[in-house]
Specification:
Belongs to the replication factor A protein 2 family. Keywords: DNA replication, DNA-binding, Nucleus. The chain is α+β, with helices and mostly antiparallel strands. It has seven helices and ten strands. It has helices spanning about 30-35, 90-95, 130-160, 170-180, 185-195, 205-210, 220-230; strands at about 25-30, 45, 50-65, 70-75, 80-85, 105-115, 115-125, 205, 235, 240-245. Strand 4 (about 70-75) and strand 5 (about 80-85) form a beta hairpin. The chain is globular and about 45 Å long.
Length: about 250
């Protein structure tokens, strides 16, 4: 069983994605998967028939370019390098001061294509705390490939009448913590749902969240929103006090 190509030959094609495809919030990937993606990135990334909202990459910084509005990080892993754009917000520069060239980082973001160049629009970037995270990420990439392939086989069997249960039952039961919000406690889930359901494009503010959840103290609210940001469930929008869900 080949585990070295991460399923590059089974990625999205130029055909439209199925209307009943399952969307996942966060999927671990390597650079080569994005660079060799054959589908239309403007329509979103589809892996093995499943649409991906946000990708996670792990690599080290090989170049940094600063401008007044954004920082461009060139991130490299063992399969290639990719540019990652981080648009600056208030106090962002101070938070990123510990990310330098040769720093190993994990990146969460959306995939975009600009002038034939594939890049990442970053929601969150942070240094690794241990090199074990590099190995763990690669294991997650391989595991994700085979899990999706298993789901597709179950889906195909179901469509032929040889399988009675839905293709996502086993996956969702065992992997919600990796791809969705199943790992959240009740309080975190309630706040996440409020952020995700907020109807305005600027995102919901901390003040509005505190009004919606009067039993949550400002310090606890800050801890929860920081946790949701760090886990890739939400990101800040117009400033550091407004939040949007990555589950778009």
């Amino acid at each position: 069983m080949d585990t070295t190509n991460y399923g590059f030959n089974n990625m999205g094609s130029s055909q439209p994605a199925k209307t009943d495809e399952k969307e996942q919030t966060q999927v671990p990937m390597v650079v080569q998967q994005l660079k060799e993606y054959k589908g239309d990135i403007s329509q979103g990334v589809t892996m093995w028939g499943y649409k991906v909202n946000i990708v996670k990459l792990v690599g080290y910084v090989v170049n940094i370019e600063n401008s007044s509005t954004k920082i461009t990080y060139s991130i490299q892993d063992h399969t290639g390098s990719i540019d990652c754009y981080l648009w600056l917000e208030e106090d962002t520069t101070k938070e990123l001061s510990n990310i330098m060239i040769n720093t190993y980082v994990e990146v969460f973001g959306n995939v975009r294509k600009v002038q034939d160049n594939v890049l990442i629009m970053v929601f969150k970037i942070r240094p690794l705390t241990t090199f074990n995270q590099v190995t763990t990420h690669l294991l997650e990439v391989v595991h994700t490939r085979y899990k999706y392939e298993e789901m597709r086989k179950e889906d195909d069997n179901s469509s032929m009448g040889t399988h009675t249960s839905g293709p996502t039952n086993t996956f969702e039961a065992n992997n919600m913590s990796a791809f969705g919000s199943g790992s959240l406690n009740k309080q975190q889930q309630a706040l996440y749902d409020a952020i995700r359901s907020f109807p305005y494009p600027e995102g919901i503010s901390t003040k509005q969240l505190l009004e919606k959840f009067p039993n949550v103290s400002p310090s606890e609210m800050s801890k929860i929103t920081d946790f949701l940001c760090n886990e890739g469930h939400i990101y800040t929008s117009i400033d550091s006090d407004h939040f949007l869900s990555t589950d778009i």
